[in-house]
Amino acid sequence: MTDPRAAARPTQAVILAGGQGSRLRPYTDDRPKPMVEIPGTGTPIIGHQLAWLAEEGVTDVVVSCGHLADVLKDWLDRADLPVRVTTVVETEPLGRGGGLKYAAAHLPHPDRPWYATNGDIWTRFSLRDMADFHTERDAVATLALARPRIPWGAVQTDGFGHVTDFIEAPPTTYEINAGVYVFSAGFAELLPERGDHERTTFPRLARELKLAGFPIPQGAYWRAIDTAKDLTEAAKELSALR
């Protein structure tokens, strides 16, 4: 039997891939951040993202380029990709909100919902479940929520101040924006021409109870690749998963 929710799930997505990745130097001296390879995989971050999107039913992706755009476009042209890819280039910085709006204008189906992700996120969870969550809450926008591990060991104490345990790199108690989104068809019209949607569009939708937060399921893989240490940790985690 066909799942009636399937028709509302996006088949198109935007990847914001224009960041300079200054904290990933020297890896980003000659390539944009999404083109940095996850050690041991032979594939850049964006390659993992495109494979994941395809597995989740996406057929068309708009990649928004900026820093060293030609390097990324050349790889996309040569690679055997599992989805149809359109590249757009910001000729001047538009901010994350403006960049999303510019990229969304090139989606093949502007009257349908869409996914979006930042170009430095490496993750695996069910986008289909996230899309269903979005639809069930009648949201205009839904963001994935992660609980990343803090980079230090934590100390646990009792009510008398006695140390009772040491916990290595525990998950934070706070949920953060995981950089993966589901947007309804009309969302792009609410984005600024320039600037950050997290300071304009998202607060407005939150006040209207039209912004939802989807917790990434416990045990699902998620990591933002911001520094050389993140690359090292991602390689270790990949090895452990095999």
TrEMBL record:
Pfam families: NTP_transferase. It comes from Streptomyces fuscus. Transmembrane segments: none annotated. PANTHER family: SUGAR-1-PHOSPHATE GUANYL TRANSFERASE. It comes from the Bacteria. Gene3D superfamilies: Spore Coat Polysaccharide Biosynthesis Protein SpsA, Chain A (3.90.550.10). This is Nucleotidyltransferase family protein. Residues 13-238 form the Nucleotidyl transferase domain.
